[in-house]
Amino acid sequence: MTIERDVAAADLLAGHPSDRQPRRVAVADPAQGPDKRRTLRWQDILVRRTLAVDVVAVTVAVAAGYFVRFDTHTDVSLLEPRGGMYALISVVLVEAWVIALGVAGSRSPQVLGHGREEAVRVARASFGLFGLVAVVCYLIKFDLARSYVAVALPVGLTLVLFARWLLVIRLHRERSRGLHLRRTLLVGAWGPVHDLGLRLKREPGAGFDVVGVCLAGPIGDVGSSPVADAPIVGTMEQAAAVAESFGVDAVVVAAANEATPKVIKQLAWDLEPLRAELVVAPGLADVSSPRMVVTTVDGLPVLKVTPPGYTGVQHVVKRAADVVLSAVMLAILLGPLLVLGCLVRSTSSGPALYKQRRVGLNGRPFTLYKLRSMYVDADERRQHLHALDQGAGVLFKIRNDPRVTPLGRLMRRYSLDEFPQLWNVLRGDMSLVGPRPPLEREVERYDAAARRRLLVKPGVTGLWQVGGRSDLSWEDSVRLDLYYVENWSFLGDVAILLRTARAVMFPSGAY
């Protein structure tokens, strides 16, 4: 049950009127206490969904292992020793596997939908269980068939992770519609809270719905709230009381001088009876979790950040993958490229290929190849189109660019014009995945942060390609590229390539 209450900055708990205009927000009725039934209900829904798909995935995997162990053409009765024993083992293994996934915390509401951590817990539970099975079989001298394990474990792990991925997609779609959200209170200094609020809005799949802000220090002279549509409802000292009044599900603490270990510890104690999550944002931006290691010093958690690696064995593997994949793709696409080239030349005057100087690794220029998608006088006409420029920052972008040919518009929509860049990959100028290859005039306007994009080879695709393409602002484009540069991994490249295939088939932001 909720009621409408007038809330003004700093007067919710202080008991005095405010000279600022109050705002209307829906909060839990104090007479009813924090409404946790809603929270527990949607969390239970997520847990039950996950339990159901775990049971199905594990059962299919163990059944596959059983039928591989016993050829389907062989008539084996379940009552016979070899068939009956493995049938019993299969039933026990399914139950144990499902229990192990729960004991490992992979179905905890705190990790569901959080990608890497959820996958790590699933893998840890699966390998741990089969390791335990191997030890038990060794101790009791039972020869468990290797074919049984060789099928059940990889198939089960794959099916569980795939099913969890489908659930994450569904969860994110539901959260984008306002379902399964945590009512969240942000606590901290104005600037960090503002930045954190923007990031939470950019990532609706995380499930944080900010309903209020508690600012550190005096708030009598504070103007507008640092988070749009989330009023200032108190100070940091009042955070626990506000959390109880609003019935929040999570309290997120951003950086602030007042957020000392003693204050955060007291806040955690105060939130215990409310069953509200305490989340502490360390103030590190765009650092992936594999680069962070949590340790303790005299009971104080310390976050270590490993430096990004721009060389090493993984980059050798990356280059080898670039050469092999680009060569194979060029061989497959040679025929379609010749057809497209003929269409380009027949539909507009000029060469089929467009050559342009771009800036690559460590600022070295190279010639980039594309299928020509504009008229031949496009560069000369650019100076007359500045009034139509829609590109923030150093980029020049026009949604309905008159210089683009009809065929070029189609090729751009499905990224067909970029296929010749595979030759740049084969030559070593570019990589399949990397930051966007910039023009020389763009690099001249780079600041120190943007120049870090040049620490790795530019890519045919990248986070900018799957994250919005031309719809991205300059700031978002730089942010995504810097995140890639500093948090690169081979598996991350694989994920981007898979997302690129989807972005090409269902294009958005390409013009």
Keywords, please?
511 residues, alpha/beta, transmembrane, 5-stranded parallel β-sheet, disordered N terminus, globular, 46% helix, Rossmann fold, 15 helices, 3 domains, two-stranded antiparallel ribbon
Mean pLDDT: 82
Q: Tally the beta strands.
A: 13
Helix content: 40-55%
Q: What is the count of helical runs?
A: 15
- Kindly report how far apart the N and C termini lie: 48 Å
- State the secondary-structure class: alpha/beta
Give helix and strand order, one letter per element, not per position: EEHHHHEHEEHEHEEEHEEHHHEHEHHH
Proportion of residues in β-strands: 5-15%
Radius of gyration: 28 Å
Strand arrangement within the widest β-sheet reads: 5-4-3-6-7
Q: What is the total domain count? A: 3
Largest sheet: 5 strands, parallel
Describe the global form. globular
